[in-house]
Structures are given as structure tokens and as C-alpha cells.
Amino acid sequence: MNNKNLDHEILKLIEAHPEITEKDIASSLSVSEELVKTRIESFKDTRQKILIMGEGSSTPNIKTALEAENYNVVKFSGGSSALEAVKTERPDLVLLDTGLADIDSFKICEQLRSSSNYWWIPVMVLSERGGAKNWIKAFESGVDDYVTAPFNPVELRARVGMVLRRAQV
């Protein structure tokens, strides 16, 4: 059972039986009590979530820099099921690496913008390709910001914060 389905089943049990214990939930769902505790704990994380999609060489540094600002950062390494990752993770911001091997990053942004469920999620592009042609393509696909390599961690954190603040208005 994937985390999304497990979370859904846990929530159903808690809603139906508010006094249910983690042990009873684990028994009912045939999973470990530790897994139930971990999933319930994840419900309590109120930090803004950033979903990084891509395989760029600087992704670990970006993840570390954003976690230092107390963001909940989740890395997703493929593009083919990007919308499923957005649906499962419910991020406050998506960072797209234009180096995704299996899908055009700008297509992911276009899919998010055309979705009635995800159009509002801000999207930033992280790219090793600069230049007006790439920036224009990105902004035409609906991205909120475009950052080129090499990434300055301080600037990236400032840009992320600005995009998230703008999204809250």
C-alpha cells in the first residue's frame, strides 16, 4: 500500500473511531505500528512543502539549503508521473529541473497550469541553461520564476520565499 492510500485509510479509521490507538490502526491495516506512527507524525508537519523534481547535480545542495530554512523538502526523481507526485505530496511549491530525462519540464508546468486541481501551485525552474530563449519558453509555460546555475543558496532561498509569499496573497 503506498503512502497516499495508507494515509487515507488511517484518516478514515481515525475519523470513524477518534479514540482508536496506533496499535489498533496498525492491526486493522496489517502494517507495523512504527509505520502508522510515522505516517501520523507526517500529518502534523505544518512547514511549507517544496517538491523538487529533477536529477540535477546540484539538487542535494538545493535540498540542504531549503531545509536549513525549515522547509519540508521532498525530492522526486522522475518526470513521467509528476502529476501523481504533486497529487500525493500536495506541495506549496514545485521546483523543476529542466534536465529531467523522461519529460520536458515545461510540459509539467503546462500540465499543472491546465489542471483544475493544481493550477495555483507556484512553479520555479532550476536550469543550467540561461538565455532569453529558455526564459521565454519557461514563462510562456507558466513558471513563476527561473533560476540558472550556478545556484547561489542565499539567492535561491530568497526567491523561494518571495514566490511562496506571493502565492499566499
Describe the structure.
By secondary structure, the protein is an alpha/beta fold. The chain has two domains: 3-43, Arc Repressor Mutant, subunit A; 49-168, Response regulator (Rossmann fold, 3-Layer(aba) Sandwich), CATH 3.40.50.2300. It has helices spanning 3-16, 22-29, 33-43, 59-67, 82-89, 105-114, 132-141, 153-168; strands at residues 49-53, 72-76, 93-97, 123-127, 145-148. A five-stranded parallel beta sheet has the order 2-1-3-4-5, sandwiched between helices. Strand 3 (93-97), helix 6 and strand 4 form a beta-alpha-beta unit. Helix 2 (22-29) packs across helix 3 and helix 4 crosses helix 8 (153-168). The relative contact order is 0.13.
Q: Structural class, from secondary structure content? A: alpha/beta
Task: Write down the secondary-structure element order.
Answer: HHHEHEHEHEHEH
Whole-angstrom Rg: 18 Å
Strand order of the largest sheet: 2-1-3-4-5
What percentage of amino acids are in beta strands?
5-15%
What percent of the residues sit in helical stretches (DSSP H or I)?
Answer: 40-55%
How far apart are the termini? Answer: 37 Å
> Which spans of ≥5 residues are poorly predicted at pLDDT below 50?
none
Observed structural traits:
169 residues, alpha/beta, Arc Repressor Mutant, subunit A, Rossmann fold, 2 domains, five-stranded parallel β-sheet, 8 helices, transcription regulation, two-component regulatory system
SSE diagram, text form:
Elements: H1 3-16, H2 22-29, H3 33-43, E1 49-53, H4 59-67, E2 72-76, H5 82-89, E3 93-97, H6 105-114, E4 123-127, H7 132-141, E5 145-148, H8 153-168
Helix pairs in contact: 2-3, 4-8
